[in-house]
Structure formats: structure tokens, C-alpha cells
Amino acid sequence: LSLRGGGARRLGAGVDLRTTPVWSPDGARVVTLRTVQEAGGAASMVLYEIGVQGGASHPLARGGPGERLFPVGYAPDGRTFYLVRFTREATVIEAVDTTASTGRAVARLAPGAVRDVHLAPDGTRLLLLALEGAPARYRARVIELATGDVRDVLNGMPREEDVGVAWRPGGTGIATVGSVAPPGGRVLLVEEHERTVTAREAGFDVPVAWSPDGRFLAVRAFSGADTEHPGAEQPGFVDVEGRRQLLSGDGPIEVIG
Hints:
Blueprint: E1 22-23, E2 29-37, E3 43-51, E4 57-62, E5 68-74, E6 80-86, E7 91-97, E8 102-109, E9 114-119, E10 125-132, E11 137-144, E12 150-152, E13 161-168, E14 174-181, E15 184-190, E16 194-199, E17 204-210, E18 216-222, E19 233-239, E20 244-246
Antiparallel strand pairs: 1-2, 2-3, 3-4, 5-6, 6-7, 7-8, 9-10, 10-11, 11-12, 13-14, 14-15, 15-16, 17-18, 18-19, 19-20
């Protein structure tokens, strides 16, 4: 659908509606996730790259039996696409050559849930939440794509759990982490040293996305103590100095762009 006018044009069918399609940097291609029936009746997940102009598509990656795939994003040059492959043995970050459709493992995490996976603006790192420990809690992790090294974004800082991550625009990108550390929550910018953006005596903020100029952070503001007892939710904005503005209405928010 062109925002400059004109009707909608169908590019494909059978797209997984639970997964957001991913655009290439030049806007000429889009990656979608589909579930297809293989020979013998088994179902598998396949990531397809579709040309926006002609609609031609080809598979970038295919899931094996019992595996799930999740699309992450393109490298800035558009030649590499990153995805998450969930297997019984591990959660694997993969890089796919978009020309040859050949993939390689970049990093491995323990098997388990991973969410909020974001590629850094310069394409060198991944920021995500990984479910770890007992009892299981989400922790913010950053992955160096050149080496596969995985580390704690907050360098072992005490907290109960991490609730959201985002990259602040500018240069290589600045990691932003929302955490719950009773009795309240905080949002931190992680540069050479952690810098607090918000610190609440009660409730917590979940980072959603920064504005393109890096001045404002959209958040989901909760009144409760933690994710098990989240309380009421409101959308809001926080500036880099920590000033908060809650919007009218309640319920979850979705960033369109």
C-alpha cells in the first residue's frame, strides 16, 4: 500500500499474522514468515523474501521439525538478514546471505524464550530479552555479531527482571533497558556508564521505541509492582531528561513508524 495514494497490492498469501513483516533498508524487499506443508504432510516455518515491485519471492531460511523461526532485520547494506531459530537444544541467532540464501550460526543461547530482538543502527549488535534462571526471569542481553559474544547489558546490576529494550538512535546506537527493582522500576541508558532516564517509586516503564531524533522514548507505563502484578497500563512518552507525559486512554500500544 503506497502512502502517496493508490490501492493496495497483494504480494503474497499465507503470511503468519502474528509476525510483523520486515522491510529491507531500501524498501525494495520485505521478509515474511509462512507455515507451509511439506511432503508427507508435516508443517514447517519458512522465511520468504519478496520483491515489492514484481512480487517475486524466494525462501531465505527453513525451519526443521519442531523448530520455530523469528525474523529480526537486515544489516544496513541489505546483504545479510538476521533471524532467531528456536530448537530443542538451543536458541540460535543466524545470519543469512540474501543473495545465496545460505545461513550461518552467529551465537547460541540456552533453549528458552527470547523476545524484543532489536538490531543496532549500525548492524553490529543485537539487543534482546532472554528468559533465564530459576525462577525464570527475562534478562537483557547484547550480542556482538562479529564474534558471537553474549553479555549482560547491565553488567550484573541487581534487579528482579528486565521488561523491555530499545536502541536510542545516534552513531552505533545506545542500549536502553527497562528493569523492575522493587519497589519501583527504572529505565537506563547504557553508554560507558549506566544513566537513569526514569526511576519510579511505584510502577515501572517498558521501553517501546525512541523517536528518530532520539529525544523522546515511547513507553508502556504500568502501575503495578512487576510483570506478574502489572496493574493498569497507560501509553506515554519520556524525554532524555526523564520528564514523563502519560497519554489519555489505556491498554497496549503498537508503534507503526
